[in-house]
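Fresh eyes needed here. Kindly weigh in on this sequence plus structure tokens:
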Amino acid sequence: MKKSKQTKLTSTSMTSTSNASKGEKADKKKQKKKNDKPSQVEPIYYFFAVVALIAGVYTPSLYSTITSLSLSSSRVMSNLEQEDIQIGKSSQVSDTKDESSDFDMIDETFLECNDENLSQFLHDEAVIGMHILCFPSKKEVLKSKNNDKDVELKIYKGSVNQRSSFSQFDFTEHMTMSDLKQILDTKIAVEMYNEQTSIKQPWAIFSSDGKHLVGELENKYYDHDDDDEEKDVDTAIQLLQNHGMVILVEGGSWVWPGVRIGFQRIVEVSSDEQQNSKRNITIETLSLYPLVLSVQDFIAEHECTHIQNKADPSMQYSGVSLMDKDKGRPASDFRTSQSAFLDSKGDDIMLGLEWRTASLTRIHRTYQELTQVLRYGEEEKYSAHLDWFDRNLYKQDKDTLRLIDNGRRNRLAT
């Protein structure tokens, strides 16, 4: 029985605005088979579309530092959301005041670190570079002050459900971000960014639904409850308190936690910058090592058809980026499929797909590569490979090393 051709859609991104539209560079020049034209589209009975969601060059926190905070990650993420982050304005509260009235404002964003909420993030085995931080609410701090009792900052290192990975530290109303960094560095062994030696990007802290709150190198954060007023980062502890349970990610780019195989999470996404077309989708964990997530109903049938028709005239046999050990070998030794890169300019469907991808990954659209469409004819292939570039395997390839800034930026996920 003759196999039908399949088309695969991927939308990859390097999280750098300077490389956001250079998908073609990642794959280098296409190499055509000699005396052989790409096969024509036959009736396609199965249309398989997989959107590769990638971000990993500059973390939002580092990006905001480089641009002198003119476009902070917090502000970028505000383009992807409508709901405001409750920052809790600091106020003087006397011992005789009704405590609840002073802290009603934090109820909407505060997520308690109870068993039910923790079950959405704790793993049976440690996740390298992902940690859960549980801050006491301002109400708890006030009560402890009145009752002369201690409250704690709780940290689950590696997001793992093991007692040996759980730590708690005394928390006071005077704690600053500098104090938190000291704890993370000396007690939790979180890797701190060093401009001279670090390959991994600076860490960042996110809300439980993936919104960027504050990053390691940021000097300011934006108070969405106060006309986006810039505030000193040391007061960002107030922001973290208002969220309660937050996630620290080393490398600074959000990744949805896998938790366990079969785990499902409902995520709200939108297909436009103004967040006027929100809907819920379900992501399911298929594998933890490596992390593989299935995104259900991400792309509609009519969008698949549009992409297929748009890509068809541009299909060419695909090229590859050869490792040093493979220099001189033809691309067809590894890849015989066909591909095309699609620009979203002037195309509402493609633009909507890019914004939906940004909304799902919680990383701005400007960090994406061009959407790549792949087509596999009968017996065509792409040998097993990685979609990121190990700098140690491309030491003789100056173009690839330049693309990944010698390892300081890379693809994060496909």
Remarks:
- The longest strand covers residues 278-287.
- The CA atoms of residues 263 and 285 lie 5 Å apart.
- The first helix runs from residue 23 to 27.
- Residues 1-7, 15-106 have pLDDT under 50 and may be disordered.
